[in-house]
Amino acid sequence: MSNQNPVFIPGPTNIPERLRHAMNVPTFDHRAPDFVDLLDPLLSDLKTVFKTETSHVVTFPASGTGGWEAAITNTLSPGDRVLVARYGMFSHRWIDLCERHGLDVEVIERPWGEGAPADLFAERLAADGDHAIKAVLVTHNETATGVVSDIAAVRRAMDASGHPAMLYADCVSSLASMDFRMDEWGVDLAVSGSQKGFMLATGMAVVGVSEKAVAAMDSAACPRCFFDFRDMMGANAKGGYPYTPPVQLLHGLRASLDMLLEEGLEAVFARHARIAGGVRAAVDAWGLTLCAKSPDLYSDTVSAIYVPEGFDSDALTERAFGDYGVSFGVGLGEMAGKAFRIGHLGSLTDVMALSGLAAIEMAMKDEGYPIALGSGVAAAQEHYRATRARPDMKEAA
User: Fold this and answer.
1) Which one-letter DSSP state was computed for residue 396?
2) What predicted TM-score, i.e. pTM, was given to this entire model?
3) Which of 159, 160, 194, 347 could form a disulfide with 200 if both were Cys (CB 3.0 to 4.6 A apart)?
4) What is the pLDDT of residues 37-68, one digit of tens each?
5) Strands 133-139 and 166-170
6) Backbone angles phi, psi at 306, to 5 degrees
7) What stretch of H or E contains 290?
């Protein structure tokens, strides 16, 4: 029964039984006339989650990394200059992907724990008088450090400089868990995946594509075949796929969208914020420090937490898994050995979060951390009691 414990990694997230059952379907003919009855409403409802009325949404059998590659290869050419800040493992990986495709990548280095530097983007764009920069790339939610960046501020910086560059956003670990506004923020390419806020298995890249990005496809010269937007959009318009789709995942995505829309997106965001608040209360009670350098950067989907000097965060996560059968995120890149991560997104409740906090507390105590057993759990309990939305429940005397 040990494998019944929820996971507290930043993804893949816990899969609700409703979604597991939804994916348990027999072989379905994706060339049959009724396939469009599944596909069309699904793509329409995905636009609701992206908060876009003007953009297209395309899906590919891939992880979020496939979505990154699709965004780059469909809209840019080898030698094109892109501007990106490196402030975590996933912004670093996006840089690496661009370099492998022969792009001219201009990198603004920032300390891990900070977010996208809108002010520095503004300075660089204002100095780019010949508009050599074709795109600005931003990781909305840096999963390695638990940092959320202000995409709206980046768009304002771009608009203030009068620069025509496109704006790309990695929203893999934020979409469907935290507020994302593709139209309002002027995002041209928004990349996500099935395994985080959508609460599904890995295997579906989900990409929002603005009309400006569609126009950029006319001149883009990066090679693409499997990830060709034109092939996918053309087939989607006729109610199909250009190749065999992952039908089981599409059924799961249909059920996931139903769950999200039934709860209401704003309620989904509020739930994540509330759960994250309890985790942060626990971290404070333990006397530990978040990687995110200020409260405005705190992510509502993942918290990266520094361990005290002289302790190894990898040993801690190994202890939690080995002794208690619970998975937490390891430190990545510069955070390796220095921090562990608690994923608090997707199919999660305050009660589930408390079980994870109790498990990592036990592992910390076993490893000799200077904490009081139960202190973090108690702090989270007080937060959840104070923020519960149950008018029928009375405060205990």
Assistant:
1) P
2) 0.95
3) 194
4) 999 999 999 999 999 999 999 999 999 999 99
5) parallel
6) -70, 140
7) strand 289-290
